[in-house]
Amino acid sequence: MSRLLVLPLAGPLLVAGLLVAAPRRRTAHRMAGLATTAGVLALAVVLLATTRDGTVLAERVGGWHPLVAIGFAADAFGALMVTVCAVAVLACLTTAATDGTDGDPLFVPLVLVLSAGAYGAFLTADLFNLFVLVEVMLVPSYVLIALGAGAARLGAARVYVAVNLLASTILLAGVGLVYGATGTVRFGALAAAARTSPTVAVAAGVVLLALAVKSAVVPWHDWLPRTYPEAAPVVLALFSGLLTKVGLYALIRVFAVVFDGDPAYHWVIAAAALLSMVVGVLGALGENTMRRVLAFHMVSQIGYVLLGLALFTAASLAAAIFYLVQYILVKTALFLCAAAVHAGHRTDRLDRLGGLAGAHPLLALAFAAAALSLAGLPPFSGFVAKFLLLRAAGGGGHWVAFAVAVGVSLLTLASMLKIWSAVFWGEPPGPAAASRLPAGVALPAFGLAVLSLLLGPVAQPLLGLADTAAAGLLDPGAYLRAVTGR
Amino acid sequence: MILAAVLAWQGVLAACVPLLTRRLGRDAGYPLAAGFLLAAGLLLWRLPVLLDGREVALRWRWLPSLAVSAALRLDALALVFALLVLGVGALIMAYCPRYLGRRERHTGTYLLLTLFATAMLGLVLANDLLILFAFWELTSVLSFTLIGQTGASAGTPAVRALLVTSGGGLALLAGVVVLALDLGTSDLARILAEPERLVGGPAWAVGALVLVAAFTKSAQAPFHFWLPGAMVAITPVSAYLHAATMVKAGIYLLMRFSALFGGRPAWDLTLLAVGLSTAVLGAFLALRQYDLKALLAYSTVSQLGLIVGVVGVGTPASDAAAILYTVAHALFKATLFMLVGIIDHEAGSRDVRKLSGLPRVMPATALFTVLAAATMAGLPPTIGFVGKEAIFEALAEAHHVPWSGPAAAGVGVLASVLTFMYAARVVNAVLTGPLRQPGLRGPRRSFVAPAGVAAVLATALGPSVTLLSSLVQRAANDARPQGEPPYLAFWHGFTVALGLSALTIGVGALLFAFRARADRLLCRIPTTASLADRFESGRARLLHLGALVARPARAAGPAAFLLRPVLAVPLLAVVAAAQLGPLPPLVGDPTRPGDAVLLVLLVAALAGVVTVRSALAAVSLTGVVGLLLSVWFVTAGAPDVALTLMLVEVLTTIVVMLVLRRRPSRLAPRGSPRALLAGVALAGATGLAAAAGTAALTGRRDLSDPGRFLLAEAAPATGGSNVVNTILVEFRALDTLGESVVLAVVALGLIALSEVGRDVRTQPAGTAATDPVLVFAHRMLAPVMLVASCFLFVRGHEEIGGGFIGALLAGTAVGLAHLAYAGAPAPLLGRLHPRPLLVAGLLLCVGVGLAALPWGRPFLTLGKVGLPGGLALPFSTGLLFDLGVYLIVLGLIVAAVRRLDERPRPAVTGRRR
Amino acid sequence: MTAAVAVGVLVATAVHLLLQRGQLRVILGFVLLGHAVNVLLLSAGGLRRRTPAFDGVGEEVVDPLPQAFALTAIVISFGITLYLLGLLRADGPAGDDGEPAGEDESADDRSAGEPAGDGDGR
Fold first, then answer.
1. Which partner from B208, B438, B579, B892 sits 20 to 30 angstroms from A120, CA to CA?
2. Residue A438: which domain range?
3. What pLDDT sits at residue B872?
4. Helix segments in B525-660, DSSP class H
5. Per-residue pLDDT averaged across C24-37, rounded?
6. A147 touching C, CB under 8 A?
7. Which long-range contacts (CB under 8 A, 24 or more apart) does B538-546 make?
8. How far apart are CA B29 and CA B91, in angstroms?
9. How many CB atoms are closer than 10 A to CB A54?
10. CA-CA distance, A313 to A308, in Å (whole number)?
């Protein structure tokens, strides 16, 4: 079983290589992309089933001595992330097939490479390898964001590449400093190192800083709402599902393993979390295109996840993981809705749209469900996530965080209502806006929304997984034993 | 089981709606009404069990790990509300078909109404805090869609309604979480059964939060402003929201939680104060309305205030009164809304100043209006009279502070007097005067029938109120078990309450007689700006604040976005410096005499980079920096790094030259001196931080364990003596695979970008010419470089070299060829195409890695591979892997020099493919 | 201390370039930043040992692992530098002024107004 741990990384890379060789075979691209991702999804589900009882699968790439081999490991957290990301990729590829984004001969290969990097980053147990795999994920995104020309897009691409390159450089410097201080980059050997040694804490702090920039945590969030909305809508949905989530995942993993959840830093993370929640939602209220509103929301949601990390209890980590998973689904659904709107109207500006609820009930339903879930309203998965988080915050007596979380969710609803009443209600602005959506373009978003709806009433399986994953983070013993091969 | 069955039945009804509307169109309301009645009948079937003091419950484990169950429970209190929801729902459903337009199917309206009823039903049946909250929010959302679907003008009020009610919902959620955390359970029945367990801070917090939730939902002051706005909804929706659902949910919540908080003075007094002041305020505002629907909306605010106030009294009699009056209000408010809808529908207006003389054309409508208005005004013999009596009696018993009883009763009477006045105004508008609208026709009987049923019921239930007695008593006891409530009767004898009723009617009648003067008086009472307007301006201010927050994310260039990440580095260093204790000592001396020379040269070159204005000079000086560092790397024992860096520098410089050939030769002008100074300061601080970090965290330990292991074991294990190279292609081949993929993607990206640029560029083709000197250099050097490249590649395992270095050298030859031939295809090397190189390289790297899996080995296990039949490959698969790397690197360089140098093709305007 | 000073001056110069106008400066800034990290990586292995890693463990033989890291990093940053150059070139010959004009407030209008060039692949 653990032999197959590298397949989510290697499989899509191989297929991408094959597809690059045949740039004109559009159908083959489409089918291969979907089939590969479905394969990864199937494997991820198997991994999930294996790790749900706390088992950790581990593999030493190349079969070398544990001291020098790059370790790959899947615990419930990693497997969960791979699974949900594969779902998001599948939905994005399907939408791309209906709205024509995948017509570009580079689109499917780049998506496959990007997703491979993300899966790999979820599974690697080596800090330097994490840096490399994050690059494997980011470089395709550098290309994807610029794909399709347009001066605005090139400008955004420049900002995007610059910020991420800076963050990557800081990350690399952090890895170098960690090696300088400890002489290793393996998670297994770095366990609790930052808690016991202040020098390691500084080095790993640099790593956390880089990951925070990549995750668009306030005050390093501006680049995300600046650049993401300029990307092609489906590409944006893909980014939202995968990119910052890898940063968040790595933040959580590094803090749990290297810092051993050191309470000395909880207030810093909590402050960043609360700031992100508030700033993100305010920015969303102030924006005026679907994509920009949603992009600012990402910042806010990242804050919610970080809040779970900051409290660092079994309940809060489970809440954070549950939140992360459902939020990937919901956010991807919302961006896919924006993509569908854009595909039909060539714009997603709030003041140039209207009356879509009547014209496209399925799309409206998908958006409404996802938006309500985002705002944490029952019976959607977002409600369970918010409840878990509030429970964790209240249980720890963190009433400020509790109050902020409650207040922000009202503002979230307000900003979602802003989109809803501008885009789906009201009158279509002028007869020219008579809309025609490509057939089936709303289906993937609808599918994700249904998934989010299901994860509300049937939350227990995911909750069980999140509990297992949280337990693994709180006590990384099993993970460490697996990756150190002892 | 019965509870699940009822909810499921409602679900089935909702699912059937599209089917019904397709077959029946707007008439789908009739079967739905029948369905509602059936559900009500199912619940009523359990009445004997409930009256026995038992309950019907159902439990399904929802989130076992949190001990949260989807628990439902039916007691008498829940039954009263459930019957209202379903009974009034049935009337509304039966009313819809004649109200709604004939043309459309109205699937949405019917579906939402059915779902709304279901959510409301779930709310009153919920026996778990979370379930309660879930249905609570569901009613908010569904009412939002019901209001909003009316049309463009409904958007703002609908949004306002949702924001206010879900704000209250969040308060409820907060309360629910605090409650569940404090008591360790979310089981409603258990929590309510032991109110004494909730004490101290949590009690205050939960109490306040529940109050906020209930007050927003039931439109109590100061949250009442959303409800009148919500009347933009179509009349059946308004009728349902006002009479039996939505606002009644708040009442239900208060009655439920009275078991927990009742008897605590803060709770009781808040209810009394807020409820009664809302009762007066709402009635006062209702009197100022001319639109019948608005009048009714404010009337709802007022009537609910009365009920809330009575709940605050907290005696068995007051609970019974509240329940009874809730029923009464549901009946007459539903009737009045339906009738107003009919009048509006037929007469085309609901303005009291325009309506008159309706009995001539629509006698039945007028009659029912009078009956319902009488119920509202509390005239005998209606149920309104009985209810008002009970309320007066209960209010008079308020005992929390001295004189609270008489005061409460007095305010109650005041509200009732105002109620009488607006009820009279409605009747007056409908009944009196001449018929002013010619051609007015009466509504069809089927249109009036549902309203008639409710009106007659409201009237008839007055004398026969004993029918309800046992249920109401039981329900009051279920709300809080504190003793037997009085038996309900139409006639109690000459009591204080009767006197108060008489007083109400008398004063009301008097004021109505002098209504012109009374109206003038009322109009003189000043009112502040409408709360709804304030709410909207607050929302606008919030959006403005949001725009301010979002503003920084609009900056154009990268610099603004790099500032804060950069700034974090010196800040982190300062914090670290304050936190770090004494550092471990340096191990040995990390400096050599020659290092100083390097540093001097480095600083000089860097100073040049920041000062020159010529782009070419800046690029060249950056190249010099790279070369200096590679020289230093040689002295630092890193020949592979040095060679790679040198080749990379050369190649980078070549590519930059290619790109710059058609660009201005000067760097962009600098910014303002002030910005420049700030930049210099930040740069200095960051540099200092980086230097300090390097000094503090490196060179302070001995050789690392992996390093020692690799030095000792790499050669024996891999057969290669260049340890660095064995790490790259064996031990950490996965990193190498990753970087190769990065390069391949960059190459593909360059290909894509060059086609992007094609539309943008305007410069005509063919300006540069071949350079004879470079051509000569190319002819001499290229073959040597290629041979050296192969050599370096093959010997990489043992000596300096390997796939990267080999390919970089070959790439340099390619770059030279392009510079020499200035874009014209160079012989041999110019014919290389990037794509096949990239594909072959990628497939080789990944394929070789994957090939280990079928042998049961881990990914990227490289080495000599045995073939079937005892044969063996003559070389290690590591060489194939390295070859893959070689091909990818070469592919990248070819892509870079070809694509970045490519002549624009003016003919190509369309997109690639 | 050599490494610390070298890292310091490289980073300072790089930051100075990054925060100024002009795309080329930004690119050069990142190149220098890459150099700084490479020096840092080698220093992380310990610069006391300076004999190339060809023959076994010795008191003076370097730690080879950071060198492998540095090689990987060099190659990755080389690739990304090329891509940045590609972005620079895709701008056309507009000059090194970097940021195209009017990107701040009108960003919306352009992204939403969909000028002819902003098709999404169709």
1. B892
2. 2-484
3. 65
4. 531-550, 559-579, 595-611, 615-635, 639-660
5. 95
6. yes
7. B539/A414, B539/B163, B542/A282, B542/A285, B542/A411, B542/A414, B543/A285, B543/A286, B543/A418, B544/A286, B545/A282, B545/A285, B545/A286, B546/A282, B546/A283, B546/A284, B546/A285, B546/A286, B546/A287, B546/A415
8. 9
9. 15
10. 8
What is the pLDDT at residue C115? 35
- Beta-bridge partners for B272: none
Q: What is the pLDDT of residue B756?
A: 54
Q: Do A153 and C118 touch (CB under 8 A)?
A: yes
Question: Would you say A277 and A304 are in contact if contact means Cβ atoms under 8 Å apart?
Answer: yes
Cα B660 to its chain centre, rounded Å, is 48
Residues of chain B with pLDDT under 70: 527-529, 662, 755-770, 822-828, 864-874, 901-913
SS3 B628: helix
How many angstroms separate the CA atoms of A68 and A62, rounded? 10
> C116: pLDDT confidence band, cut at 50, 70 and 90?
very low
d(CA C120, CA C111): 11
Size of interface B-C (CB pairs under 8 A): 341
* Beta-strand relationship, B56-63 and A70-74: unpaired
pLDDT tens sequence across C41-97: 999 988 888 888 887 677 788 999 999 999 999 999 999 999 999 888 876 554 444
Touching subunits of B (3+ CB pairs, under 8 Å) are A, C
Domains in chain A: how many in total? 1
Q: Give the chain A residue nearest B152 (alpha carbons).
A: A426
DSSP code string of B752-766: HHHHHHHHH--PPS-
- Residue B482, Cβ neighbours under 10 Å: how many? 16
Pinpoint the alpha helices (H) of B490-530. Answer: 496-513, 515-524
- β partners of residue A126: A186
pLDDT confidence of residue A436: 72
Q: Find, among A330, A298, A348, A327, the residue nearest to A99 by Cα.
A: A348
The tens digit of pLDDT for each residue in B92-119 reads 999 999 999 888 888 989 999 999 999 9
Q: What pLDDT, in 10s, does the model give residues A288-298?
A: 999 999 999 99
B671 interface with C at CB cutoff 8 Å: yes
Q: ipTM of the assembly?
A: 0.95
Between residues 8 and 47 of chain C, which touch chain A (CB distance below 8 Å)? 18, 23, 26, 30, 33-34, 36-37, 40-41, 43-45
- Whether B476 and B319 have beta carbons less than 8 Å apart is answered as yes
pLDDT for B501: 92
pLDDT band at A435 (very low <50, low <70, confident <90, very high): low
Average pLDDT over residues A100-112: 91
Query: Which pLDDT tens digit goes with each residue over A297-318?
Result: 999 999 999 999 999 999 999 9
Count the helix, strand and coil residues of chain C and give each as a percent rounded to the nearest 5. Answer: 65, 0, 35
Minimal CA separation from A437 to chain C, in Å: 14
Burial call B734-745: b when 16+ CB within 10 Å, e when fewer:
bbbbbbbbbbbb
Q: Which pLDDT score is estimated for C69?
A: 96
Integer angstrom CA distances of residue C3 from A382, B87, B634: 50, 83, 14
Q: Is B687–C47 a contact, with Cβ atoms under 8 angstroms apart?
A: no
Q: Which pair of structure tokens corresponds to residue B876?
A: 């290690």
pLDDT reading at C110 higher than 60: no
Q: Residue B701 CB: number of other CB atoms within 10 A?
A: 17
Return the pLDDT at C97.
42
How far from B86 is each of B42, B571, B809, CA to CA, in Å?
Answer: 11, 64, 83
pLDDT at C113 over 70: no
- What are the tokens at A86? 């594969």
Instruction: Say whether A261 sits in a helix, a strand or coil.
Output: coil
